[in-house]
Amino acid sequence: MRLIVIGFGVVAQSFAKLLLSRSAELYSEHGIKPRIVACVDKGGCAISPAGLNLQRLLEAKKSKGTVAFYDKAGSKFDPMQIIENVDAEVVLEATPTNLEGGEPGMTHIISAMRTGKNIISVNKGPLALAFPSLMELANYNGVMFRFSGTVGGGTPILEFAKRCLKGDRITSFRGILNGTTNYILSKMEEGLTYDSALDDAKQKGYAEAIPSLDTDGYDAAAKLVIMANWIMGMKVTMKDVDRRGISDVKLSDVKKAKQNNSAIKLIAACNNKRLDVKPTEVPKIDPICVNGTLNAVSFSSEHSGQQTIIGRGAGGIETASAILRDLIEIRDHVFEHSN
Ligand SMILES: NC(=O)c1ccc[n+]([C@@H]2O[C@H](COP(=O)([O-])OP(=O)(O)OC[C@H]3O[C@@H](n4cnc5c(N)ncnc54)[C@H](OP(=O)(O)O)[C@@H]3O)[C@@H](O)[C@H]2O)c1
């Protein structure tokens, strides 16, 4: 499998390290030999049709700040030139999430689909803004579009609902989809004010450079949109979510909830085709009432009742494992259809 990697930050570098450490096992267990044939960041690109040496690629990024210095000359091609002109089966989109317009990821994904390449995206932006039309474009071009890492990091929330509950019908789901806000609310439960808890989250590296993406509920809303489309078959985008963040939650609200043996959580819910993100009082005995940066989602299904999945919702290596999951699925699909 030949891959083009667009964006070489925390997640994509973790993915390269994962490939280095698991290459023998990937071949023996799955018959898969992934080769990164091109990699692009803001500084330029590295290309090798035979497959880049990943150790050298990581070293170039670490020492020079860009993959362009993989070769002495440095290479300045941009992502679009690479996607359109380099032969590969899969494009990995790992540029920053932008929920206003979805760029640059949106253009990368559309261009990859139009040139017949399968897509793995860890970038939520394009999916949150245009899931139905991107899925249609993927089907029209006969390519696979996978995005496990966009929801739950390495925790297989999408797969759990889509595959493990396949024979059943999911009627609704609700959960905690953003680890940063959950960390802030957990710290408030310990007695910190909202501002001190936010500062603490920033210091620990949990909060984004623009914290409002988390605290105003945009990140949770984006994940809710992806889940509603993929799991419930809805055709929705960000504008269909009724969204409220946690910045108005007061320490007194948190204390009051605690007295009721409950906690305030930022809950994303899909119920009766309604999509909501809002601070909600959740009883401590509810399995989704998890603390710290954890994510948790409960699915209600017609026959098997309530099922809950809990796990870490972000992290470079965790998300890299989701990319590998998508890659194996694409490879199995390509193999099935070539025989
Ligand atoms: N980090 C996590 O735990 C996590 C978990 C799940 C999903 N995600 C999502 O995964 C994506 C990547 O996250 P990350 O943490 O790896 O981000 P990151 O460390 O900021 O890396 C982003 C990469 O994209 C590159 N880039 C930005 N604009 C570009 C452009 N126009 N053309 C080519 N490359 C461009 C950057 O280049 P430079 O290196 O030159 O700046 C950088 O290499 C994001 O959408 C994020 O929301 C992250």
Highlighted features:
339 residues; alpha/beta; Rossmann fold; Dihydrodipicolinate Reductase, domain 2; 6-stranded mixed β-sheet; 12 helices; 12 strands; binds NADP nicotinamide-adenine-dinucleotide phosphate
What this model shows, in words?
This protein has 339 residues and is an alpha/beta fold. The chain has two domains: 2-154 and 317-338, 3-Layer(aba) Sandwich (Rossmann fold); 157-312, Dihydrodipicolinate Reductase, domain 2 (2-Layer Sandwich). Helices cover 43% and strands 21% of the residues. It contains twelve helices and twelve strands. The protein has helices at residues 10-30, 54-64, 79-85, 105-114, 125-141, 157-164, 179-189, 194-203, 212-215, 218-232, 251-259, 316-338; strands at residues 2-6, 35-41, 44-47, 90-93, 118-121, 145-146, 170-176, 241-243, 262-271, 274-283, 294-301, 305-312. The strands form two sheets. The chain has a six-stranded mixed sheet with strand order 3-2-1-4-5-6, sandwiched between helices. Helix 3 packs parallel to helix 4. The longest helix is centred in the C-terminal third of the chain and has 23 residues, at 316-338. The chain is globular, with a radius of gyration of 20 Å. The protein binds NADP nicotinamide-adenine-dinucleotide phosphate. NADP nicotinamide-adenine-dinucleotide phosphate (NAP) binds at residues 6-12, 40-43, 66, 79, 94-97, 104, 122-124, 149, 153, 314-316, 319.
